[in-house]
Write a structure and sequence with these properties.
single chain; 414 residues; alpha/beta; Aspartate Aminotransferase, domain 2; Aspartate Aminotransferase, domain 1; 17 helices; globular; binds pyridoxal-5'-phosphate
């Protein structure tokens, strides 16, 4: 039995059963999903804490309910730690998710049908930046940029050209599947050139930004949004940072503009993860994520797999499977049978749909949290290469499964 869930077991066997299976899955498979991580026990405790019982519409010191003195402490800590960690002038820690944080910025500076310039989803952008099936694509006039055919990286001159034509009110920079350093300074210059606001969405790279292994957008962008559950390794949620001049409008956009009561238990957990992120151990963790990604990418390349843009500078890489004649969907399914969990992903200039795709995305934040280093990355990389080069083979699958099982035994989830 899982002692931490004993009350659930007493009252609800079905949910308890699913939890127990999920515990097994997280412990006995290798997680390479670039947007996931394992939180600390402290974050988990905070996210399940009694502050979930409290209504606290408003902000610390200015609430619409009585009895907020303790949740105010938690929210003030989260805000102060966030500002210190990123060097931001203002932080709003209430958005329920990364998408909600982005929505708050749009509601701050845009009116419906205004123009946003953002990265195309199939080139690495996020749904909430531009997708026609998302509110962003429905509410706003979206113009997109992508990576260049030449080197599969962002071509800033091309972005400038598109920006001059489109005259956007807001430029969005940041991605969910871009393996290279993002030049926020260049985007600032482009935004200035066309008189647009600049929003940097660092949902994926926030942890690396705090550690200085990825340049920070804070000096360059009017707004910086992030999730707290990816490389920041915290509670599931979002944050908006901005310069003081926008503070009041951002706060009003979040509440009462788009949300009611904040999730105070999640905000308490955000405070805890931000405290963890201020430690030297967290900086070392971020450095190791990047070293691990490089080691993994090198092995894949040695095994003749083609990486989008030829490599990685951050925590993730994309494998182009086109030349192997297999799809991302099939690779994801077969590797999952092998105990390796990752996701299919569109690649730049994709010819298949988003449910099939020609690529897979691989990230190192989770395996690095388990304590794995370059040697383990070399093993995992060679297993992935063997998997995609022997798709469907049951013997190969069993061999990989047993190697992954041994690796999981050696590196328990903290
Ligand atoms: C994950 C992600 C988000 C959204 O996060 P949710 O919490 O899932 O809404 C936003 N932007 C980028 C770039 C992301 O990768």
């Amino acid at each position: 039995m899982l002692p931490q869930y004993k009350h659930i077991k007493d009252i609800d066997e079905e949910v308890y059963d699913a939890l127990q299976k999920e515990h097994e899955r997280q412990n006995y498979k290798i997680n390479l999903i670039a947007s996931e991580n394992y939180t600390s026990k402290a974050v988990l405790e905070a996210q399940g804490c009694i502050m979930t019982n409290k209504y606290a519409e408003g902000y610390p010191g200015k609430r619409y309910y009585g009895g907020c003195e303790n949740v105010d402490i938690a929210e003030r800590l989260a805000i102060e730690r966030c500002k210190r960690l990123f060097g931001a002038e203002h932080a709003n820690v209430q958005p329920h998710s990364g998408s909600a944080a982005n929505m708050a910025v749009y509601f701050t500076v845009l009116k419906p049908r205004d123009t946003i310039l953002s990265m195309d989803v199939t080139h690495g952008g996020h749904l909430s930046h531009s997708s026609p099936v998302n509110f962003s694509g429905k509410l706003y006039n979206v113009v997109t940029y992508g990576v260049s055919r030449k080197d599969e990286m962002i071509d800033h001159d091309e972005v400038l050209g598109i920006a001059r034509k489109a005259k956007p009110k807001l430029i969005v920079v940041g991605a969910s599947a871009y393996p290279r350093i993002i030049d926020f300074k260049r985007f600032h210059e482009i935004a200035d050139d066309v008189g647009a606001y600049l929003m940097a969405d660092i949902a994926h790279i926030a942890g690396m930004v705090t550690a200085g292994v990825h340049p920070s957008p804070v000096p360059h962008a009017d707004f910086v949004t992030t999730t707290t559950h990816k490389t920041l390794r915290g509670a599931r949620g979002g944050i908006v940072m901005c310069r003081e001049e926008f503070a009041r409008d951002v706060d009003r956009a979040v509440f009462p503009g788009m949300q009611g009561g904040p999730l105070m238990h999640v905000i308490a957990a955000k405070a805890v993860c931000l405290k963890e992120a201020l430690t030297p151990e967290f900086k070392a963790y971020q450095e190791q994520i990047v070293k691990n990604a490089k080691a993994l990418a090198d092995v894949l390349i040695e095994n003749r797999l083609r990486l989008v843009s030829g490599g990685t500078d951050n925590h993730l890489m994309l494998v182009n499977l086109r030349e192997l004649g297999i799809t991302g969907k099939d690779a994801e399914a077969y590797l999952s049978e092998c105990g390796i969990i990752l996701n299919k992903n569109t690649i730049p200039f994709e010819e298949l749909g988003p449910f099939v795709t020609s690529g897979i995305r691989i990230g190192t934040p989770s395996v690095t949290t388990r304590g794995m280093k370059e040697n383990e990355m070399r093993l995992i990389g060679s297993l992935i290469a063997r998997g995609v080069q022997n798709m469907g083979d049951a013997n190969v699958r069993d061999k990989i499964l047993s190697e992954i099982g041994a690796l999981c035994e050696k590196f328990p989830v903290p």
